[in-house]
Amino acid sequence: HHRGHHVGQARDHPQAAQAFLSAAVAQGPKIAVATMGAQGSLAYDGRTFSSFGIYAARVENTVGAGDAFIAGFIYGVMMDYDIPRCLQAGARQAARVVEVFEPWVSE
What we know:
It is globular and about 40 Å long. It is mostly helical. It has helices at about 5-10, 15-25, 65-80, 85-100; strands at about 30-35, 40-45, 50. The protein has a 3-stranded antiparallel β-sheet, with helices on both faces.
């Protein structure tokens, strides 16, 4: 469920996550984000690292959790939320998706 070798290692090595995000932002993006499963998420905007934990969820299936996270994060960006609130929005969507078997949430 984690894409990229470095991000997978980030769960156990927060300094590795920070180094990975710093290197990613140096390549040009304005923001880089790492999801770290139960350890939450970390973002870097070239100046500040921001983190957010997780929302408690009854895990049925983790398929789609990363996609749901980034959808929530991007929604926050579009709504002009600050980065910590974007991470929170991503975590909320990921928690909703892992509680159902299908990798989407029906309203």
